[in-house]
Design brief:
By secondary structure, the chain is α+β, with helices and mostly antiparallel strands. The chain has four helices and twelve strands; from the N terminus they run E-H-H-E-H-H-E-E-E-E-E-E-E-E-E-E.
């Protein structure tokens, strides 16, 4: 089972500048205290035509999109995303250098978990898990969000760490 797939993006800087313009127009980074912030998908796609062109070139269609704003090293604990999605688009926007997506598997049969009302799962005891892979978040990628994962900060992590997470209409192949 693959954990992630890096995607090519020849004009990443230009696309990311358009994304940053949109993000700055929302004031979410300044005002939100949440890690996960849903964005109006149609409005976002209309405001970022270079991103839309890139999505089309990759054969990806967005179902919904969220802005993740990490304000401290504990902002994204070990979890699985809510069903039915398995894989999602992850786009680094700002301060993602020295941050890693890490994936885990359980060392025991029934790890201590908490399931939210949408079916997502938080893992409450890291000693019950072992790391099985990691990737530095520096390029757009597809990540497997149904395997327990988190965001880990290495020195010198800079905050706020901002990323874009896209839930897709059709599951991409890793």
């Amino acid at each position: 089972m693959k954990l992630f797939k890096n995607l090519t993006c020849d004009n990443y800087t230009e696309i990311n500048n358009q994304i940053k313009e949109y993000v700055n127009s929302t004031n979410i980074v300044e005002e939100s205290t949440k890690f996960w912030n849903l964005l109006p998908t149609i409005e976002f796609v209309k405001a970022t035509p270079l991103f839309r062109e890139w999505l089309n070139s990759q054969g990806l269609k967005l179902h919904s999109i969220a802005l993740t704003v990490g304000r401290d090293a504990g902002c994204c604990k070990i979890h699985t995303d809510t069903p039915p999605a398995v894989n999602k688009l992850s786009w680094p926007i700002q301060h993602t250098q020295h941050t890693f997506n890490r994936w885990f598997r359980s060392k025991i049969e029934n790890p201590t978990i908490k399931i939210n009302n949408l079916g997502g799962c938080s893992y409450l005891d890291i000693s019950q898990l072992e790391e099985i892979g990691r990737m530095e978040v520096t390029t757009p990628c597809i990540i497997n969000a149904r395997i327990p994962h988190d965001v880990w900060f290495d020195y010198p992590g800079v905050f706020p760490r901002i990323g874009l997470q896209g839930m897709l209409m059709k599951e991409p192949i890793l």
